[in-house]
Write a structure and sequence with these properties.
The protein has about 270 residues and is of the alpha/beta class. The chain has a single domain, classed as Class I glutamine amidotransferase (GATase) domain (Rossmann fold), CATH 3.40.50.880. It is built from nine helices and 14 strands. The strands form two sheets. The protein has a nine-stranded mixed beta sheet with strand order 3-2-4-5-1-9-10-13-14, sandwiched between helices. Helix 1 crosses helix 9 and helix 5 runs parallel beside helix 7. It is globular and about 50 Å long.
């Protein structure tokens, strides 16, 4: 059953003017693959490997969001890559910010072509890595043309505004102290599991309070591939774009599907390849 938008949020939405454009921006070099959780299909993994330079490219997996004390080769976020043919995967995990800020810990990222961040709870990624050398090295990887992928919590953390970061639970959309992501995708907030968990309108309150943000919600097994000001949609389901522009259907968002492309600054939809 679809959630009811609280009256205060609805009034805020009605009083918020549509954006003439936005400042949302992905990396100038490299790419992001942002997945809405669930099963990561071959079309998404194939794009990740292609952007990384092949299945033999060095890949770093950061599974810390899951909350386990340690991780091995059977960890879900690792296994999905190795089962798909990845041959050079290194797992990085710590809850010690001093270690996360060290050259020794981050050396594998400095030598990698790709980083993959699986799901769990966003706040664990913030507590361990936000503002550390780990975050810096991830951004350097993009600057040299690499790719960062992530699913669920690993999707939301890539945005500049972090949703569902509260320690108290993932129903809290805006949590003081946990509202800043890694900023790989600037000027945006990213939600996930949208249809599966009936979150269709949850980003409305976020963009009402922060009208400069572009809200992007992804259903499971669906991804956006972000390069510069544009993203392409791939996968099985839908992407929900909350840009303040009225939708002809009367919804507070626009629905995009595989084959659609979106210009995050002009706020326009086209087809992949156009």
């Amino acid at each position: 059953m679809r959630r009811i938008v609280p009256l205060a949020c609805l009034l805020a939405l009605l009083s918020t003017p549509a954006l003439a454009g936005s400042s949302a921006q992905g990396p100038d070099k490299g790419a992001l693959i942002i997945v809405g959780g669930g099963k990561v299909g071959s079309e998404i993994l194939d794009r990740f490997f292609a952007l990384a330079g092949g299945k033999d490219a060095p890949i770093v997996v950061i599974p810390t969001a899951a909350g386990d004390p340690s991780y091995g080769p059977q960890t879900a976020g690792v296994k999905v890559l190795t089962d798909a043919g990845a041959t050079h995967v290194t797992v990085l995990h710590t809850t010690d910010r001093k270690e996360a800020d060290s050259e020794a810990f981050t050396r594998p990222i400095a030598q990698a072509r790709a980083v993959w961040i699986p799901g769990g709870r966003q706040w664990r990624l913030v507590d361990s890595y936000s503002g550390t050398r780990t975050e810096v090295e991830i951004k350097k990887l993009l600057a040299r043309g690499g790719v960062v992928g992530g699913s669920s919590a690993g999707a939301s953390i890539q945005a500049s505004y972090l949703v569902r970061g509260a320690r108290e639970g993932n129903e809290v959309m805006m949590a003081p102290g946990y509202e800043e992501g890694f900023g790989l995708l600037q000027g945006a907030a990213v939600d996930q599991h949208v249809i599966t968990r009936h979150r269709e309108t949850d980003l409305d309150a976020v963009v009402a309070r922060h009208p400069d943000l572009l809200g992007v919600g992804l259903d499971e097994s669906t991804a956006i591939v972000v390069q510069g000001r544009r993203f392409d949609v791939i996968g099985k389901s839908k992407v929900f774009v909350h840009d303040g522009k009225p939708d002809p259907s009367g919804l507070t968002y626009h629905l995009l599907s595989t084959g659609d492309a979106y210009d995050m600054q002009a706020l326009t939809v086209s087809k992949t390849g156009d």
